[in-house]
Design a protein that fits this description.
With 376 residues, the chain is α/β, with parallel strands linked by helices. It has 4 domains: 91 residues, Chorismate Mutase Domain, subunit A (Up-down Bundle), CATH 1.20.59.10; 106 residues, Periplasmic binding protein-like II (D-Maltodextrin-Binding Protein, domain 2), CATH 3.40.190; 74 residues, 3-Layer(aba) Sandwich (D-Maltodextrin-Binding Protein, domain 2); 82 residues, Alpha-Beta Plaits, CATH 3.30.70. It contains 12 helices and 17 strands. The strands form 4 sheets. Strands 2, 3, 4, 5, 6 and 12 form a 6-stranded mixed sheet that branches. α2 packs antiparallel against α3. The longest helix has 36 residues. It binds the ligand C=C(O[C@@H]1C=C(C(=O)O)C=C[C@H]1O)C(=O)O. The site of ligand ISJ has 10 residues, from α1, α2 and α3. Pathway: Metabolic intermediate biosynthesis; prephenate biosynthesis; prephenate from chorismate: step 1/1; Amino-acid biosynthesis; L-phenylalanine biosynthesis; phenylpyruvate from prephenate: step 1/1. GO terms for molecular function: chorismate mutase activity; prephenate dehydratase activity. It is found in: Cytoplasm. Catalyzes the Claisen rearrangement of chorismate to prephenate and the decarboxylation/dehydration of prephenate to phenylpyruvate.
Length: 376
């Protein structure tokens, strides 16, 4: 019978040697970083790493060990790059140029745009975020709202980015990259939809229900109870309410907010909930200025990665190694590059923190593109 204690003593001694070797290796990595900072050579050298992995896997005594040692070396090299990015970060300021640090967002007489009409959920989100001291105006599409802000014809726009039931609003993810706008805030709004019809109408009269596709998706379970209703998509929930009011046809109903119902003189046709109790939408506030408020605690970024095995893993290791908490990740297809994706990430932090800077420099160096969408 083998002696467990003795074997464990030997394992401990090997681990001690690994630790010493690791520390020696990390010191050398520091010297490599100094060389790279002085010469401008990129930290990541894929060829060098591939050759090392090939060489070490060839000299392993079994396939199992070859895989194992490659895994260890891959991790070790990833850590060595993270250390080099930390050193690089001390010499790098460009990434954060142009940001304006503020106590609070400037809202006095600000012009705020949203998509839809008065009574749309975005108008409620705008009121909740900004209070009543701002001027709001509405436009027909999300892209118009973003364009107006990017051309500095308005200060802010309020855009829905995700709903707790129906998921992300894909178009917003795609659009915010196309214009020079920054996320400067967010507002979560509990959403309670109502089924709205003409005064005097009854639920049994309904044949067609109008709403925004997101609202229809949020009420999917309820609508299953009425398979005979035709579902028609419109640009906005408030637009749907206005249509029902204008058409004066008792067979039409809209799914929209309570305030849209009041605004267009409609009556609630259904007492029960149309979506879950927790149904909420997260709106982002965008600006044409790189504002960061003092207590900003969330960072949104977007990056593209080389289409190679492990590239997302390595990008995320920059967050893990710097103890940063990722709160969301989404991927969206890159147009004209079939089945290649860009990633949208939210994580907790402030751009002034060294860990955040280290992580972003690491991702920037290994990603094809990095966009900092905002810190709010
Ligand atoms: C240390 C270096 O930097 C990076 C890390 C490597 C490593 O830890 O072995 C290898 C190549 C580079 O991606 C280097 O360039 O030698």
């Amino acid at each position: 019978m083998p002696d467990l204690e003795k074997i464990r003593d030997e394992i401990d001694s090997i681990d001690g040697q690994i630790q010493k070797l690791f520390e020696r290796r990390m010191n050398l990595t520091g010297e490599v970083a100094e060389y790279k900072i002085a010469t401008g050579k990129p930290v990541f050298d894929q060829d060098r790493e591939n050759k090392k992995l090939e060489c070490i896997s060839e000299s392993a005594s079994s396939d199992f060990n070859a895989k194992g040692i490659c895994e260890i070396l891959r991790q070790t090299m990833s850590i060595s790059r993270i250390r080099q990015y930390q050193m690089l970060a001390e010499h790098e300021d460009d990434l954060f140029s142009g940001y304006i640090q503020l106590e609070h967002l400037p809202v006095q007489e600000a012009q705020v745009i949203y998509q839809g009409l008065e009574g749309a959920y975005a108008s409620e989100a705008a009121k909740k975020f900004f209070g009543k001291c701002v001027n709001t105006a509405h436009v027909g599409t999300w892209e118009e709202a973003i364009q107006i802000v990017s051309k500095k014809q308005a200060d802010y726009a309020v855009l829905p980015i995700e709903n707790s039931t129906a998921g992300i609003v894909q178009d917003i993810y795609d659009l915010i990259l196309e214009y020079p706008v920054y996320i400067v805030g967010e507002q979560i709004l509990p959403i309670e939809h109502e089924l709205l019809g003409l005064p005097g109408a009854d639920i049994s009269d309904v044949r067609t229900v109008f709403s925004h596709p997101q609202a229809l998706a949020q009420c999917k379970e309820y609508l299953k109870e009425h398979p005979d209703w035709e579902q028609r998509k419109l640009l906005n929930t408030a637009v749907a309410a206005r249509k029902v009011a204008d058409d004066k046809d008792i067979r039409q109903a809209a799914i929209a907010s309570h305030s849209a119902g009041e605004l267009f003189g409609l009556q609630r046709l259904e007492e029960k909930r149309l979506s879950t109790e927790k149904n909420s939408t997260r709106f982002i506030i965008i600006s044409n200025q790189k504002y960061i408020v003092k207590n900003a605690e969330k960072i949104s970024i977007c990056f593209e990665l080389p289409h190679k095995s492990g590239s997302l893993y390595h990008a995320l290791s920059n967050l893990i190694y710097n103890d940063l908490n990722m709160t969301k990740i989404e991927s969206r297809p890159i147009r004209d590059r079939n089945f290649e994706y860009r990633f949208f990430l939210d994580f907790e932090g402030n751009l002034s923190e060294p860990e955040v800077k280290n992580a972003l420099i690491g991702i920037q160096n290994e990603a094809d593109e990095l966009y900092i969408l905002g810190n709010y």
